[in-house]
Amino acid sequence: MAMNDAVDLTPGEERLSRIDEGFFKIESFFNIIAGIVIFLVMFLGVIQVVGRTVFNRPVPSYVDVIEIMMGVFCFLGIAYCQKLGGHVRMEIILKRFKGRTFYGFEIFGTLVAMAIIGILMYYGYTHFLRAFQLGDSTIDGDFILWPSKLLVPFAFSLLMIRLILNLVGFLRLFANPSGVPIAIPVIETVDDQAQHEIHLSGADQEPDDDTIVPQGSAE
Amino acid sequence: MDELTVGIIGTVLLLCMVFVGVRVYAAAAITGLLGVVAIIGWDAGAGIVGTIPHSKAVNYALSVLPMFILIGFIAYHAGLTHALFNAAKAWFGWVPGGLAVATVFATAGFAAVSGASTATAAVFSRVAIPHMLEQGYSKQLSAGVVAAGGTLASLIPPSAILVIYAIIVEQSVGALILAGFLPGVVSAIIYAILIIGQCMIDPSQGKPVKSPPILVRLKTLPPVTPIVLVVGIIFYSMYSGKATPTEAGALGAFVVFVIAMFRGMKLGNLQEALLETAKLTVMIFALIWGILIFVRFLGFAGLPQAFAEWIVTLPFPPVVIMIMILLGYAVLGMFMDAIGMLLLTLPVVYPAVIALGYDAVWFGIIVVKMCEVCLITPPVGLNCYVVHSVRPDIPLGQVFRGIAPFFGADVATVALFIAFPEIITWLPSLLGAGAN
């Protein structure tokens, strides 16, 4: 996060900030893998349609292959999304609170997420273990299923680390509400959200050459 | 304590958590877990819940979502917005308020490659507002039409939010995608009629622009063919059943990707589009498995059936109950993101709506239209903030004043859909995609 750029940090804060940003690199890595797999799903879909309709040769076990790939983009980016404050929530009441009350609710929300993710990590792992021990596989292509199921506890472990970082960040601010915000998810105001959408749509970039209107129009 | 009571306590607990800002996926999942455990015990309950994220998320039918999302994020780099606006201006500029009408049709066209309302509003704030202001259009109308035009994105296919609805209520994805088309077009036409009427009464709002000769007009068409191609691919696939929604989405994304490459999309842009696609995808999937854990609990508690049975005994005609439900969505939508709101409410509301005798596909379109209306109403009205942020010279209050007539038009549109449900159900029934 860039918000602590100009501020003097204590050695402890600096360490926390460095861990936060270092872990964000790991999260970004897994999220871009998820993005690349989505990109590959696109190519596979094109190959499937062309293969089936033009050459009468569909991709073997296409549905199974897609479902194996889904394990990646359904879960791997979950910690990245948490870091950027991307998971949906209702903020209108929360934002009425300031200081310690605000951070108190944030701590509560983080603890709830940690509780459920902790339980799902364990039971997701046993779900994987059963598939691993029984040699569970997909129906059509007979692909082994355990690697896909292992992605769930793995991605949830990443999320758990992110949540622990968030908890530390919020506890710090709960103790000292005027401190520098470090290691907490991005909290976007409506304005920030608007800016984000504008950036993604390219509306903040220089107009490109096709702004030129065709000749003969009324301008 | 009977199961129904556990169900009601669980629902109240979930709402409390959501109100104090717990992320919806976590609040839904933990309530679902606690509820299932309360009814069938820890070992069986937690065991079932632990399998849900993988078994429910990894489902081929859901793989269409990232494809539609990807189309949207790449489309911004395909240079389609200016082409659309130029074409719409050349063909519709001559009517009263011509540039504003052109903006409506251009945003409707862009909606065919983007399912994102706010981003559509952002990009047309840059493309259309300067032209309108240059021609002496009022700031209010210029800003209002862009903010309103953005909302067309989630009805006109491809629309990720309609896919999510289809999956949660277990209806045909193809039927919902087809069903969104006509209501999207009707919404656009109603906006256009509104603008023309406004500008006939008060010509100073926006004057017509001269149409170029027919040859020049025809020349504006080739650059917009990619849009026609994407719509064509998706429609033909749904109609003929020759490709699944995922395959159609993949083809659409590929077409847009190739055009974006030709238009000089940089590697950095692609990387950013993929990062954002993955982030939005995982957000939606987390919501889906979180809510489905909660739905499992609701099923054990028998709450949706009980609610549906109760609602049909109410001494009001169904249409009154429907209007009350829609008003509920309008209020909730002021405080919450559309996808979260839909997922949170549908498990309980949907069975009740069906028990009242309404059509599943029809309700999907209506409820998504309601979500869109919330994007232009205060206090959040994200589209209005977006327009104001791109054009800080137009005060937020003026944007909201500009949007007011369009809000009225949307209310009229929803009333029209209630009075004539065929506008929604005709296309899917015709194509045999089955609106049953």
Rounded to an integer in angstroms, the radius of gyration calculated over CA atoms of chain A is: 23 Å
What's the total number of strands of chain B?
A: 0
Alpha plus pi helix count of chain A? 6
Beta content of chain B comes to under 5%
Terminal Cα span of chain B: 37 Å
Which two chains have the most extensive interface, and how many residues on each? A-B, 83 and 99 residues
User: Overall pLDDT of chain A, averaged?
Assistant: 83
Secondary structure layout:
The complex is a heterodimer of chains A (219) and B (436).
Chain A: H1 11-53, H2 62-75, H3 78-83, H4 99-134, H5 146-175, H6 190-200
Helix pairs in contact in A: 1-2, 1-5, 2-5, 4-5
Chain B: H1 3-19, H2 24-40, H3 42-57, H4 64-75, H5 80-92, H6 98-111, H7 117-127, H8 129-134, H9 139-150, H10 160-168, H11 173-201, H12 214-219, H13 225-240, H14 245-262, H15 267-301, H16 303-312, H17 318-333, H18 338-355, H19 360-373, H20 382-390, H21 396-419, H22 422-430
What does this protein look like?
The complex is a heterodimer of chains A (219) and B (436). With 219 residues, chain A is mainly α. Helix content of chain A is 64%, strand content 0%. Chain A has 6 helices and no strands. Chain A has helices at 11-53, 62-75, 78-83, 99-134, 146-175, 190-200. Mean pLDDT of chain A is 83; it is low at 206-219. Chain B has helices at residues 3-19, 24-40, 42-57, 64-75, 80-92, 98-111, 117-127, 129-134, 139-150, 160-168, 173-201, 214-219, 225-240, 245-262, 267-301, 303-312, 318-333, 338-355, 360-373, 382-390, 396-419, 422-430. Chain B is mostly helical and 436 residues long. In chain B, 76% of the residues lie in helices and 0% in strands. At the A-B interface, helix 1, helix 2, helix 3, helix 4 and helix 5 of A face helix 1, helix 2, helix 3, helix 4 and helix 5 of B.
